[in-house]
Design goal:
single chain; 189 residues; mainly alpha; three-stranded antiparallel sheet
């Protein structure tokens, strides 16, 4: 079996549930899809579904841990719900490549999750606020203005020190971020 075909097939098996189903249900079609010869297919089948799923689980845990690391306030405020939402997202959206893949992954997740109607509005806004700070901190040049229904900087500060309230009073807030020539600033009013 050629190394490149084997690597492509393994990558698909580790990241795509549909590929695992194809290998199990129609191994010859799977082999043809990845140009695998009979010994190469046999090697992949010998891995066993249990071992594949164990490795898939470890990749999923690493990806989720990166999301929690990059969005600590949202993870603290939303608790296990953020992890569950991220895992559901990660099972639908493959992780891209490159050195900033986790950052791009988390920003894409935050953009989708910030619009999720199932969350409380102040939690959606906190996720958007934290993701915008993350985007600003990783950009060479950036400008953004956001309107929030809650005093978002105060809420973020409360979450940072471990105090959260289930209900947070509405107060319109504007947040502004600038990144220019290495100078970074953010304001709320």
């Amino acid at each position: 079996m050629a190394l490149i075909q084997s690597q492509r097939a393994l990558a698909a098996l580790y990241t795509d549930a549909a590929a695992r189903v194809r290998l199990r249900d129609d191994p010859l079609a799977f082999a043809a899809e990845f140009a695998l010869d009979a010994p190469g297919l046999a090697q992949l089948q010998a891995l066993g579904e249990g071992r594949l799923l164990a490795y898939v689980g470890s990749l999923e845990r690493k990806r989720t841990a990166e999301a929690v690391r990059l969005l600590p306030l949202s993870a603290r405020a939303r608790g296990p719900a953020l992890r569950r939402a991220f895992v559901a997202y990660a099972r639908r959206v493959p992780l891209g490549g490159g050195p900033d893949r986790y950052l791009r992954d988390v920003l894409a997740f935050a953009e989708r999750a910030a619009h999720d109607a199932g969350d409380a509005p102040h939690l959606r806004e906190l996720l958007d606020y934290e993701a915008t700070w993350l985007r600003a901190s990783s950009a060479a040049a950036f400008a953004r203005v956001r309107y929030y229904s809650f005093p978002i900087a105060r809420f973020a500060g409360e979450v940072a020190v471990g105090r959260t309230a289930e209900r947070f009073a509405r107060r319109p807030t504007i947040a502004v971020w600038f990144v220019v020539a290495g100078w970074r600033a953010g304001f709320t009013f």
